[in-house]
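Here is one such protein, fold included:

. . .
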Amino acid sequence: MNPMYSPSSTAHPIAALESQSLFGGYGTESIVQDISFALEAGEWLSILGANGCGKSTLLRLLSRILPPQRGAIFLDGKAIHTQPTQAIAQTLALLPQQQTIPPGLTVWQLVSLGRMPHQPWWRWDLDASDRQQVALALASTGLTSYSDRPVEQLSGGERQRAFLALALAQSPQVLLLDEPTTYLDLHYQLELLELLKHLNQQKGIAIITVLHDVNLAARFSDRLALLKDGQLRYLGTPDTVLTPTTLAEIFAIEAAILQTPVGLQICPITSFASTFTPVETR
């Protein structure tokens, strides 16, 4: 890739987040290989693929946790690795799969941390504008009445909403979420994804989620990115990329595809090339 390339040099609108010929991984191993795509403002893209295909690694590269081995990432038209960390945090927020909770921290205190990128280094407390943003983040996630409750006392679904409120307090244009429905039951999975859809549509936040549930991804996402062996094999709307052929290639399953009132639903029938060997019992 030409290192002088910039998406702003084209006639197309600047993408909220763009990956250009991206390679990355750990050490010298390239887990993610030659991935290019653009996330438009207000779009929801979900990354899908089998375990170990590079989904979480790609998200770490996009969020600047991992440096790329080759290629580049652009955030609002600017190369992400040339921007100050504070400037990136004012535009992009990440909700990781696992969060560390300091003991005794209240929900308000946790969400207040989201305002740090917007504060000068010499200020230690929130001003009126910061407090308003924290209050809005709590209201958006339905946690206003939980402000004084310790985070460790929240249920799994409430805790996910609290960390989402922390991310929203940053006032991001782009929100990255790594398997946000993990460890949540069906009720809380739907509650969280419906909340994200509301934020996506009402506030115009561009979203990238790493998800395991193909049906939930198809229901809530505008586009899907299907990965295999660290490479982007398919990118498009759910109805164009979810076919029996692609499901067999990406997930090694035979599946029926059903049209339902909430969109496409994938019904697995059987798996291919299983490495599981039954053990006889007596």
User: Anything to note?
Assistant: The chain has a mean pLDDT of 88.
